[in-house]
Write the structure tokens for this entry.
Amino acid sequence: MFEEIKTILIAMSPIIELRGAIPVALLQYHLSPYSAFFFSILGNMIPCFFLLLYLEKFSDYFSSKSPLFKKVISWFFERTRRKHGERFNKSKELALVLFVAIPLPVTGAWTGSVCAFLFNIPFSRALPLIFLGVVIAGIIVTLFSLGIINFNNFAL
């Protein structure tokens, strides 16, 4: 059971998320593919739940306490909305799922939660969309980790 807990903790971490947890669970902890997949998804979704619930409160609280924080956050949000808002708003739900589903660094549930907050996707809608993206990413990473698909399949 200790390996399952370690898998959950790895999947909870930002940037690494399930993209790191699944290969470690399979190759180092020798969990079954189903266990590695399940515990990685569980771990990846735990912080997402709290981020979606509390990111706005956290931002509001620190903005009210620190003018510098408010200025930096406002600048970041305005810049992000200006640069990506038009593309994202056209198909915001599909964009969120695909963004989370792409198994690359800096994409995933953590960043997807921030995007949902930034583009005002409500919790009740964002959580299932991010979950779908995490499941898709988990399938891709599991298949790569098991060698069922590899980069040679994508050669041009």
Notes: Residues 2-154 form one domain.
